[in-house]
Specification:
alpha/beta; nine-stranded mixed sheet; 16 helices; about 600 residues
C-alpha cells in the first residue's frame, strides 16, 4: 500500500511505499529482473534516474554472446573456456558455467520477446566473430556474437521495456536513489529516493531490493560511459558498511574515438577491421599471432599503448592508432556497422569508406562491483564464511561482481551478463518471496540519515564547485590507475585521491531547490563516484601482480600462488579503505564440464 506520511523533518515531505520488490535501475539487467518479477506475480517497482530507454545499455553495440552455432560449430563449454581464460582465472567457474549454459535459452527468449536481430540468409540469428571468443578451446575465432547490426543494446533495451509494460510493474522515472535502508540485523529493508520532478522524498519498503545501477566509468576522464554511469549502487553499498569486490580491474576498450572517447565497437574488428601504427604496420600480429586484432581487450589496449610509448603512434603528436574499415566496402559497412559509420563522421570527421578512424584505449567497463553469488544475492563475506549473504539485497549487471568477468571481460559477455543474471534474480525472487506478505515496520528513523546527507549537500557553501572536484578526481584516476600502473603511480594515486576526497568538505552547491536540481544530483553522484574510485585505487595499489586489466609494471607476471583471490574493499565516511580477500571459486556447477586449470594466457 502507498500512503503519505507526515513530513518528518520540516522541509522534506516523505511519501511511503510498500512493494514486494524494488529494482533500482532500468538498464538491461534492471528491466530483465523487473519484468521477470512482475511476471512471477510479485508487486514490483522500478526506480530509475533516467527514462528506461535512456539507460546506458542503449549504447551497447557489438552483440550478445551465445553458442547458438548458427554460423560455425560452437559449444557452451568452449564459451566457458574462453570466459575463464579471458578473466585471467579470477572468474568464479560455477558462475561462468551458469552464464554460458544459460546463454542459449536467454538469447532465444530475447528473440521470442521480439529483439530484431540481424539474420542469416536462412532466417537464423546472425553471429559475428568477437575478441577472445574461440572454437575448440582456443584454436581459431568463433562466430558467437548475436548482433542487431551495431545497435544490439538499443534493440534489447527497447524490447525489454516493452515487455515490462505488459506486466503490472510500476516505474518511478526520474527518481534518484539516495541510500539503502538497513535494519539492526544487517538486512536490507528498502531504499530512499528523491523525485526530481516535484522534489518529494520517497521511502520504499520491500522484501528485496535489487541494485541494477550500472558501472562507474565516469570516475575517469576519458570513458565510453554515459554521464549517468556514476556507480550509485556501489556508493550506496559502501555507505551501508558493505564491501565492493575486485574494483582494481577496470577495462580499457581499445577503440575509443580519439580524442572524444566515444566507442567504436569491437564488432568493427569482428567484421574484418584492423589496427595500424604510424608505419602502416598491422602490429597486433606481433602481440597475438593467432587472434591478432581479435585478441581480448586488455591485450589489444596494452599493445596499442606500447606502440604509442615506443614512438610508433599516428598523427602530429604520435598519440593515437588507426582503425581501418575502408577495405570492407560501403555495402557491408552500411548493413552491419551503420551506427559507428555515423559516429566516426560526427566525432572524428571521418568517412569510414575512405579513411581510417583515429582511436585510443578508453575506460569502458568495470569488472568489479557489488559481490554476489550466482543467484544474484549480495554477499557480506567474513573470515568464517566467505559466502555469507545480506538478507533482502540483490545486485545485477555492471553494478555487480558475480564474478563472471574476473580480471577482464570478453566482448559481448556484458549484454549476456545482464539478461542471464537479471533473469536469475527474477527466478530467485520467485522461489524465495511470497507475493503480498506482511512486512514488519521499518526501523525507527529509517531514512533520516539519508535525508541529513542530502540536506548537507544541498546547503554546501564551500569554495569549490562540484564540476571542479569531479575533474580533479577524474584526472587523478586517469593518470594514476591507467592501462599501465606502477607502485609509484599507485601510491601517489592513493594520496591524491585522499586529498580529492577531503575536498568534498569544501564543496559548493549553487542551487538550493529540490526540483530538477542538476547541481545537487551531480554532487550526490560525485559522492558515489568517490567511494568507487577510492576502492579502485587502494585495491590496485595492494595487488602486487599483473592479471587481466591490472597491468602492474613492477610485477609483470601473474602470481597465482599469492593473488588468485578476490579483493574486498570497505570505504568509510572519511575515505579510508580497508581491504580483505576471499577465494576464487574453482569448482564447476555440474559434472558436465571440468574445472579449467590456470595456464599462461596467450592469444
Amino acid at each position: 500500500m502507498n500512503m503519505m506520511s507526515k513530513p518528518s523533518r520540516g522541509a522534506y515531505q516523505v511519501i511511503d511505499h510498500t512493494y514486494d520488490v524494488v529494482v533500482v535501475g532500468a538498464g538491461g539487467s534492471g528491466l530483465r529482473a523487473t519484468l521477470g518479477m512482475g511476471a512471477a506475480g510479485l508487486k514490483t517497482a522500478c526506480i530509475t534516474k533516467v527514462f528506461p530507454t535512456r539507460s546506458h545499455t542503449v549504447a551497447a553495440q557489438g552483440g550478445v554472446a551465445a553458442s547458438l552455432a548458427n554460423m560455425s560449430d560452437d559449444d557452451w563449454r568452449w564459451h566457458m573456456y574462453d570466459t575463464v581464460k579471458g578473466s585471467d582465472w579470477l572468474g568464479d567457474q560455477d558462475a561462468i558455467e551458469y552464464m554460458c549454459r544459460e546463454a542459449v535459452p536467454a538469447v532465444y527468449e530475447l528473440e521470442h520477446f521480439g529483439v530484431p536481430f540481424s539474420r542469416t540468409e536462412d532466417g537464423r540469428i546472425y553471429q559475428r566473430p568477437f575478441g577472445g571468443h574461440m572454437k575448440n578451446f582456443g584454436e581459431s575465432p568463433a562466430q558467437r556474437a548475436c548482433a542487431a547490426a551495431d545497435r544490439t543494446g538499443h534493440a534489447i533495451l527497447h524490447t525489454l521495456y516493452q515487455q515490462s509494460l505488459k506486466h503490472e510493474v510500476e516505474f518511478f522515472v526520474e527518481y534518484f536513489a539516495l541510500d539503502l535502508i538497513m535494519d539492526e540485523e544487517g538486512a536490507c529493508r528498502g531504499v530512499m529516493a528523491w523525485c526530481l520532478d516535484d522534489g518529494t522524498m520517497h521511502r520504499f519498503r520491500a522484501q528485496t531490493v535489487v541494485l541494477a545501477t550500472g558501472g562507474y566509468g565516469r570516475a575517469f576522464l576519458s570513458c565510453t560511459s554515459a554521464h549517468t554511469c556514476t556507480g550509485d549502487g556501489g556508493g550506496m553499498v559502501l555507505r551501508a558498511g558493505l564491501p565492493c569486490q575486485d574494483m582494481e580491474f577496470v577495462q580499457f576498450h581499445p577503440t575509443g574515438i580519439f580524442p572524444a572517447g566515444c566507442l567504436i565497437t569491437e564488432g568493427a574488428r569482428g567484421e574484418g577491421g584492423y589496427l595500424t601504427n604510424a608505419e602502416g604496420e598491422r602490429f597486433m600480429e606481433r602481440y597475438a599471432p593467432t587472434a591478432k586484432d581479435l585478441a581480448s581487450r586488455d591485450v589489444v589496449s596494452r599493445s596499442m599503448t606500447i606502440e604509442i610509448n615506443e614512438g610508433r603512434g599516428c598523427g602530429p603528436h604520435k598519440d593515437h592508432i588507426m582503425l581501418h574499415l575502408e577495405h570492407l566496402g560501403a555495402d557491408l559497412l552500411h548493413e552491419r556497422l551503420p551506427g559507428i559509420s555515423e559516429t566516426a563522421r560526427v566525432f572524428a570527421g571521418v568517412d569510414v569508406t575512405r579513411a581510417p578512424i583515429p582511436v585510443l584505449p578508453t575506460v569502458h567497463y568495470n569488472m568489479g562491483g557489488i559481490p554476489t553469488n550466482l543467484h544474484t544475492e549480495v554477499l557480506r563475506p567474513s573470515e568464517s564464511d566467505p559466502d555469507a549473504v545480506v538478507p533482502g539485497l540483490m545486485a545485477v549487471g555492471e553494478a555487480a561482481c558475480v564474478s563472471v568477468h574476473g580480471a577482464n571481460r570478453l566482448g559481448c559477455n556484458s549484454l549476456l551478463d545482464l539478461v542471464v543474471f537479471g533473469r536469475a534474480a527474477a527466478h530467485r525472487a520467485a522461489e524465495t518471496l511470497k507475493p503480498g506478505v506482511a512486512q514488519k515496520p521499518l526501523p525507527a528513523r529509517a531514512g533520516e540519515a539519508s535525508l541529513d546527507r542530502l540536506d548537507a549537500a544541498r546547503h554546501a557553501k564551500g569554495g569549490t564547485r562540484v564540476a571542479t572536484l569531479r575533474e580533479r578526481m577524474q584526472r587523478t584516476m586517469q593518470s594514476h590507475a591507467a592501462v599501465f600502473r606502477t607502485s609509484k603511480s599507485l601510491a601517489e594515486g592513493v594520496e591524491r585521491m585522499r586529498e580529492v576526497w577531503h575536498g568534498l568538505d569544501d564543496m559548493s552547491v549553487a542551487d538550493r531547490g529540490l526540483i530538477w536540481n542538476s547541481d545537487l544530483v551531480e554532487a550526490l553522484e560525485l559522492a558515489n563516484l568517490m567511494g568507487n574510485a577510492m576502492a579502485t585505487m587502494a585495491g590496485a595499489e595492494a595487488r602486487h601482480e599483473s592479471r587481466g586489466a591490472h597491468a602492474h609494471d613492477d610485477f609483470p607476471e601473474r602470481d597465482d600462488h599469492e593473488w588468485m583471490k578476490h579483493t574486498l574493499a570497505w570505504c568509510d565516511d572519511d575515505g579510508a579503505v580497508r581491504l580483505a580477500y576471499r577465494p576464487v571459486r574453482m569448482q564447476t556447477l555440474t559434472n558436465e564440464v571440468s574445472v579449467i586449470p590456470p595456464k599462461k594466457r596467450v592469444y
